[in-house]
Amino acid sequence: MRAPLWRRVALNAAGVGVFLVSAFPVFWMISTAFKPNGEIFSSTPHPLPEHPTLRHFGSVVDGSVAGVSFWSYFANSAAVAIATVVISGLLALLAATAVARFRFRFRTTFLVLLLVVQMVPCEALVIPLFIDLKRMEMLNSLVGLIAVYVGFALPFGVWMLRGFVAAVPKELEEAAALDGAGPLRIFFRVLLPLVAPGLVATSVFSFITAWNEFLFAYTFLKDQDKATLPIMLQFFFGRSGNDWGPIMAASTLLTLPVIAFFLLVQRRMVSGLVAGAVKG
Amino acid sequence: MTTTTAEPGTVAPVKQKNKSDVQGSGRLAAVLLSPTFLVLALVVGYPIIDALRESMYQRSNGLDANGFVVKGDKFVGLKNYTDILTGDASHAFWNAFYNTTFFTVVGVLIETILGVAMALVMHQAFRGRGFVRASILVPWAIPTAVSALLWRWVFQADGVANAMIGHQVLWTTEGFHAKVAVLIADTWKTAPFVGLLVLAGLQLIPAEVYEAAKVDGAGTWYTFRKITLPLIKPVLLVAVLFRLLDVLRFFDLPFVLIGAHKDSVETLSMLAYDEASNLRYGPAAAYATILFVYVAVVAYAFVKLLGADIIGEARSRKKTAAKRAKKGPRAAREATA
């Protein structure tokens, strides 16, 4: 059955509109990254660079501005973001299963506690955490940073996944148990595939949080070879005015992995996973 | 941890299962929860207590009444708080309080409406859907520092914004237009967040429900109000709640887009940060505590007014699960009623 023509036209128009609004500033960012300096500051700017150059990307990647090579920042950022996604996803799924599947005392208290965590202003935690990490000699380490990011990603993850776990009918698990599947097998074979859309949504969230976070990274990581990408961005500001070419090149390089990550996982958010499993 | 003991009382309305199962599940639940609990206690719980203690102290490096040099922190009780609420700084505080509230109410309202609209569009089948879906999340994926810069470019005196409205507005100077600029940039950035979550919720609604509604002749608006909205309500409420909590702690966007010490856009978080960066940890912690209390009150009110079933729904899981399993026929009945 096909939708009426006006509907299809309206949908496509809405899609194009949404696309333009979301993508235009980003388009400008990428375009500027390829423009030579003369074109960036031209009073009659063109949407596309007339003489595209890779010079700005070159100066970002070889580290001539920031001091340390781009790849060092990139590796740190990737390690931090991936560890945050994996650890917080796993812990949140466990906790969400407990909250959605079992009745126990303080269950509601736990859920409220998670919300309270989400209410704490980050600025309030920077100083005490700095002192604590210093005491534990984890100040200049990515592990400390990962622990902090996991902590901030967890409340949202648990709350989000709770609904998805609850939506999986218990009958499915019981059927699997009747067929002789153990708890682990049920978890990986029944629960995990069915909550995958929720897991994808939360992992996109935690990845972006960890990838973009600036305040904690800036406060905790003092060595340049430990620093993450958002810190690198800072090197292009100030002193002799903003160097827009490299800023935009660095911003582009900072943004691309996030978009790549999203494109990679968004296919898993296909509809009907649950609907298909619960039919009848 | 005490969560190991299951309380039969809370179980009663839900189901009549045997007791040993309940107790066993309580223990298992504690095992499943403990890693999360541990991380949160270390990363958030302990530092909060530290900050609360800090808010009762002031750094004093001056001379005391007898002319002796006093070093280190001095206990001042609630003085930091009273200074903020009634002292010389109270003007800045109440102004920031108003700004924070304004951004929260207006911002979250616009973001929610746009986010739901975006999710509905993305949920439809049309060519290039995956592309639009990916592009819609680009704004959210971009680091705030970068997006604030992008918007600074849009809002500069001879920028795109002025060209489009045909007026000369100095967006990034003091005034109501600065608030508007911040709101536009924030909406651009975070409406996709609401959109993504609502989309995930939409994907859990079986297509049969809509087919049944269509067969029964329900219109688009009616279907949305009676089927879509109730079914995405749990996801939507969580999304809105988290947006509320986030925007109340609004910091980096106004900071980078407009700048510090601008009355029009100064938020409570910015005040706290400003104090901390001037090494006045006591007042900074006091600001943060006040902000925290404000956020807590708003969240409590939100959950009480709208989301009574945010937790309530979880409490009667069995009912919900049964409802979800039978969602098709029931929703169809609702649509025809």
UniProtKB/TrEMBL annotation, chain A:
Signal peptide region: none
Residue span(s) of domain ABC transmembrane type-1: 74-265
SUPFAM superfamilies cross-referenced by the UniProt entry: MetI-like
Membrane topology of the entry: Multi-pass membrane protein
Keywords, in A-Z order: Cell membrane, Membrane, Transmembrane, Transmembrane helix, Transport
Domain of life of the source: Bacteria
Family that this chain belongs to: Belongs to the binding-protein-dependent transport system permease family.
UniProt protein name: Carbohydrate ABC transporter permease
TrEMBL record, chain B:
Domain of life, source organism: Bacteria
Stretches of the chain forming a coiled coil according to its record: none
InterPro entries membership: MetI-like, MetI-like_sf, Sugar_ABC_transporter
Subcellular location: Cell membrane; Membrane
Main location (coarse class): membrane
Family matches, as Gene3D superfamilies: MetI-like
Keywords, in A-Z order: Membrane, Transmembrane, Transmembrane helix, Transport
Matching PROSITE patterns: ABC_TM1
Residue span(s) of domain ABC transmembrane type-1: 97-302
Spans through the membrane: 28-49, 102-122, 134-154, 231-251, 284-307
Membrane-related topology note: Multi-pass membrane protein
PANTHER family recorded: GLUCOSE IMPORT SYSTEM PERMEASE PROTEIN GLCT (PTHR43759:SF1), TREHALOSE TRANSPORT SYSTEM PERMEASE PROTEIN SUGA (PTHR43759)
Family: Belongs to the binding-protein-dependent transport system permease family.
Protein name: Sugar ABC transporter permease
